[in-house]
């Protein structure tokens, strides 16, 4: 309590206090009588009335006197003695003692005054807020004391006050924030055991389920999350975590069921389970990561990584987490192995990394870091992570069919190559490789992540030839130039000087490693040969790439300065951004004398008769002789330009022709991938066909065949070569299950949506222009469609055709409507022939056919799953999503 000194306080107040402690032999009444007899009553009243009033039990009047005389602190003390806390608070506030005022306001239950005082103390900074915490704690207002302590950042104190206030959920939350998850779990478990059913118990089950799920304890987590989901206020949050838990246990069907129910409350959630899981993983990275559980190897699943060479173990038959069937071994190291595997739940090939049972703590930390970092980065040029279990020691990634860059360089080395020199890639392929890796690096750098280990072994290629950066196990989070710890991390041959010395790292370290990788891909050797890489990286300048290339390779002039800038010893002398490197690469000529597209030889009359005229089917594109089957004397697809340049497209095999073009399959030697080349007849495609080509090329969907290049002057277009078989053949003997058919519809609708949004359409959707790969992913062909019709294709015709195609893929019999009639209507030159009634009838037929078993009563099912007939790709996707939800609901028990 702040009390003024005697020199500061009024004399009347000093005398009042002196009188208050006067001798007991002189009563207040005697003093008053004495003053009256002496004629000094008025002076006595002015100077000693407060003490006399207190002695007479008239405290309220005494306090008022002190307040009037300018002693609000003394008045506050007197008001506190008579429990008049409201006036005590007023006086303490007048005296400037906000903490004392707050204690009294709390005692008086003056809520508005309390709020004002807390706000005033908060403005004073941490000291004022700490005083407020003390005030609430003294008054045993532990809930608010905990809240203010949490606001102040004193989490341990907040946890103590929450527990004293019997707020166990908040106490558990503080324990989690302090990293004491075990204590938080025990507290929540005890609370769930004794709590009565209701909202608070459901909240505890939700918190406990989330904690267990964060520690990969998915089975018990699912049990608590299911209970929490029964409470409407918590349903959606619990369902979202439950879906992830079930999917992590391999129970994808159950996860889909929960997703269906969740979308009833939140239709904006992705309908596809994989899309939902990807979105949830991305969102989880924005939350503070929970500490990983201690791992000692004793609790590992029998199916987790272990000694794969132990007797009786057959990796080819082993199943991980109930869904990943192991196949061939792709690679091995001291900490574990990587297998090719098949995801039986997701019906796709994957790569799975398994930690060894004897893993040490450092290997485990690297494993967890790789999973956490990679799953937070989603980009076409970064290897994607699908699943991860810290407890069982596995990491599931996309399978990279094209292998690693290191394998390509090793495979390209000739037997008589000099020591230290491997194979090389064409300059154009290295340029493309660099651009792909820069795109992935840019995403990582924007998230504050440095890779720290870029090298050919960590660069992979997908089936289409795109390069992707993988293995973020030693990735480093940028922290304002924080110095590295833990010794050398990375691979010395590719390590930047500042990484070797332990200096603060920036993105320049990754650019240096990228320069080493590109140098090696161009020349077949490292820029610095070792063995003392440390001394060389710190002190030696590598020779120009042009000086060490083989005699058969002549680099464009821009390569040497670009690589020199990437390999500068001082980080500040390298490129200052990924974008700057990209621009430098894009400015390079692919190679001297090279052309963007090398035309192949003219087709002969014999070639012209190799196929009937008209649109080519997918069989024509897929069933041609393989590239390796081409005779040794097969002509190349390009003849060069007369000065010794090798053709880009080789091993060309004729596929057939349409009314306006010839098609062939060839190997793109620059990018090492198979392509389809469409050469239009003299004069090129007509204006309408060219507009359609441009429209389809701009589709931007993974389910549309990509157009790689188009040379208008030469009348040549190059497309990616699809894998799989025509849809008509794929479902000829075994139709697709209903759910798979609807997913096919959803994917093709996604392919059509961008076209339709721009006012374009495909116009040739049939069972032969859709290719289905082994994992049931479709590709809508763009090449070989033939000349355009007199009237431009219309979105309604695409929708109509796709609805019918889906019905036939599912094995539905469309009654008396013949194939010819269907195709004629779908390709009708007048789009008005396909109106809303026609679309509605076909859509309702599909709904009834998929939702109803043969011979059963389907009345009313169409209305429940179809609100309006779709007219565009976007509307068709919405329709397909609704149909998928209806199918999943009908699959639930009791439906």
Automatic annotation (TrEMBL):
Domain of life of the native organism: Bacteria
Record bears the keyword Kinase: yes
A Pfam family it matches: Pkinase
Region annotated Disordered, chain positions: 1-42, 286-314, 626-655
SUPFAM superfamilies per the UniProt record, alphabetical: Protein kinase-like (PK-like)
Compositionally skewed regions (Polar residues) per UniProt: 24-41
UniProt entry tagged with the keyword Nuclease: no
Record-given protein name: Serine/threonine protein kinase
Species name: Haliangium ochraceum (strain DSM 14365 / JCM 11303 / SMP-2)
